[in-house]
Amino acid sequence: MEHIQWDPGKPLRLLDQRRLPWEQVYVACSTHREVASAIKNMVVRGAPAIGAVAAVGMALAAAEFAREEREGAGGPEGEGRALMDVLEEAGRCLKASRPTAVNLAWAVDRMLARAARAREEGEGDTLRLLQEEARAVAAEDLAANRRIGRHGLTLLPAGARILTYCNAGALATAGYGTALGVIRAGHEAGRVRRVYACETRPYLQGARLTAYELCREKIPVTLITDNSAGYIMFNKMIDIVLLGADRITRQGFVANKIGTYTLAVLAREHKIPFFVAAPLSTFDLKAADGRDIPIEEREPREVTRLAGKAIACEEAEVFHPAFDITPPSLITAIITERGIVRDPGEEGILALFAEGRKSCS
Ligand code: MRU
Known about the structure:
Layout: E1 4-5, E2 12-15, E3 26-29, H1 32-40, H2 47-70, H3 79-95, H4 102-120, H5 126-153, E4 160-164, H6 179-188, E5 192-198, H7 205-216, E6 221-224, H8 229-234, E7 240-243, E8 247-249, E9 254-257, H9 260-269, E10 274-277, E11 283-284, H10 301-304, E12 305-306, E13 309-310, E14 323-326, E15 333-336, E16 339-342, H11 346-360
Parallel strand pairs: 4-5, 4-7, 5-6, 7-10, 8-11, 10-15
Antiparallel strand pairs: 1-2, 2-3, 8-9, 9-14, 12-13, 15-16
The protein binds 5-S-methyl-1-O-phosphono-5-thio-D-ribulose.
Residues 45-48, 166-168, 172-173, 178, 205, 243-246, 256-257, 322 line the site of 5-S-methyl-1-O-phosphono-5-thio-D-ribulose.
């Protein structure tokens, strides 16, 4: 599924996830502001996907700067300095589009660091370097997801019946998916009997996107309402819970789609393993616990309306946090591209990152 299409020098084309599964329509973005708006309005969503798209947004900002320079509308300062100002401003705009998933800020900072290095080392042609970097962000995410799939496979019991939540699939990433990456790998290995996809109110990512992805790949899927999860666990219909993440702190607190915490509490009560699959770009080592994670609150009309139709009194006060925090005590393991952290906590998570530093040195 080519949901993020981009060739340097061309506009970014995003499959409009708001219109799935009914129709496949693309939205074109030629500027970083259009990218920020597409992220804010959920044309594209899912933590690693918005990171990959934000990286392209930064490359588009550099292209906008180059265009203005050619047309003589550039700033009065030195070339490199003015470009950095433009990129920093674009980075702020992109970061403000959605606050919880750290992949977005991570990708923006990576692009800024690349531009700064190019400037310091006089590499020249910063636009081309940023375009290459944006492509690398997406390519690395895809590769990471395939590795997450391979690691996660080792945790699946034979004939696994898996409960998943929201959409942590190809659509939520640069491709293949995190939690759905494990499910894809498990399906290829013949280990998945059935996936139970929670519909995920109010945005219905589970019903509209996860069920869509799984149906397309002929992976057996049963769609359930979110409030069926307890009944399904009580009746021993699932073996594991497996879902993605939007931000993971160094102590192992996981921000994910609102309702994740409820599932984790239910899973603990029913002694069902609870697995989180996420790339390293989803970790925020500066954050210690859940209090360090900003939780996005979205528009009341996402709750009071369904497919554009009012389903509640419009005057009713609405509280609509888009994410919640699950503490590490409820998480059996976190699956990353670098391996599995069991009983996640600060020690295991920092060791995972230290491992990377060792193998890079
Ligand atoms: O609001 P969304 O759709 O961007 O939220 C995405 C999620 O919370 C998903 O559950 C997912 O696990 C994170 S992306 C792989």
